[in-house]
Fold this protein.
Amino acid sequence: MIRLDGIGKRFHRGGINEVIALDEIDLHIRPGDFVTIIGSNGAGKSSLLNALAGTFAVDGGSIWLGGRDVTAWPAYRRAALIGRVFQDPLVGTCASLSIEQNLALAVRRGRGRGLGIGVKAHHRILFREQLASLGLGLEDRLKARVGLLSGGQRQALTMVMATLIQPEVLLLDEHTAALDPKTASQILDLTSRLIAARELTTLMVTHNMSHALALGNRLVMLHRGRVILDVAGKEKTRLTVEDLLARFYASQGETFASDRALLG
Amino acid sequence: MTWYAFIGAVEQGLLYGIMVLGVYLTFRVLDFPDLTVDGSLPLGAAVSAVAIANGVNAFIALIIAMVAGFLAGCVTALLNTKLRILHLLASILTMIALYSVNIRIMDGPNVSLLGVTTVLDPIMAWGLPGYLAALLLFAAVALVATVAMIWFLHTELGLAVLATGDNPRMITAQGVNTHKIIILGVGLSNALVAVSGALVAQNQGAADVNMGVGTIIAGLASVIVGETLLGRGGITRGCIAALCGSVVYRVAIAAALSFKMGRFAVTPSDLNLITALLVVLALTVPTIKARWSRR
């Protein structure tokens, strides 16, 4: 269970460039929810995920993860509960380490690290099995340096790493945006398969409205750091891209109207 | 170059090789340019010399030096992580502070170790000639340090150190506190450097506050020379290259010092220039090679 209560975040606070990234956001997510998050640039989508992951401290409000108040936890501590895939395929993995070393790092997520050998024999069996499910042939390249892999392969590996230890929540931040369309759809397939098989609670940020509609059981639209649309279940399945666009322009229209009011 | 000078250079290469492993750990593995070593090398020398002068066993003195070096590294890492001072500047601050600390420890600019029992004496007691005993002992210590480093970098913790240097965002997302890892890594690096300094002092019969000047450049030059000879890639190869690079570097320096042409002879004061040229050469060889092979 994830609960965001009145989360606020401003960047460049008090300065001339002050930006309201998150404006008193309340969001309750049930276990097993797969939420897609859309919104224009600067709507606060990535900020929402970063606030959850602890990349920055929020200005106000509280964050609950798995029944614990994690508001004051630093990012590395929250990582015990969170699986994360970033937009940039280079961020989620270590280029200079081998595939098995990367996975060995992920298999210790949320646990202590000691002087035991890093890549253990019984881990390799698990790694092979997990990589085989990707269908990319990576299971035969455990010793290969990750820097030699393509962006799509690295993103697939990051997906495996993020879910190797069952996370309380999986955060996907436009994780297919930097890939070519074919690879992107492969990664998206993998995403829905993994989430369904492991019953992962997921938050997925995307710029692609049809993806947002096709995947998940709940859709949240953000605008200027606020939730302006939150639909789930049957209501979401009836939603079309046109509905979303209409909603999106309506929110823009509001701001036009207020501008006009100001000038008038 | 005489045979004696050659053996001496190899001995120095092995001794300072332990320091080079430390430099490799910060510069290459952690991506943390750490100049603390110019201060932690004489710190190790000072601590072990004073300990021995006060009747402590020479091997135990090495361990005390190691702990002192580790703490010095921790200071730099804490300045960087907790107080957010740029790593380069943080290490310079610790290095400068250590100059005063070292003089305090020795109660003067140097401590003589003549006539006391050092780590070399038990080996000499086997009846080996002095130069062979030193060579044997230092080769053993350098090998143990290299193997220990390779082993460490293959442990769970070691992998976290490697990942912290490569991709801090990734390793944070895997639940690792990068601050702790940097403190540990820079601490271990300086522990090695201090042991190296302690052995140098015991070998040359004195600890001197100025013996650390240029350590970082020599260390970096050795790392680069090693990489040029053995190539980059893999941690095991990197650690071995660091040790080999140190030996080759010292031999090259010794060769340069024995260079004479007519009335011109290279003096020890020319070493800095030679080192700089060596580093430039080692850095540019790959580029020149690539250009030649393209033709």
Summary: Residues 3-213 of chain B form one domain. Chain B touches chain A at residues 152, 154-160, 162-163, 166-167, 169-178 (CB under 8 Å). The first helix of chain B runs from residue 3 to 30.
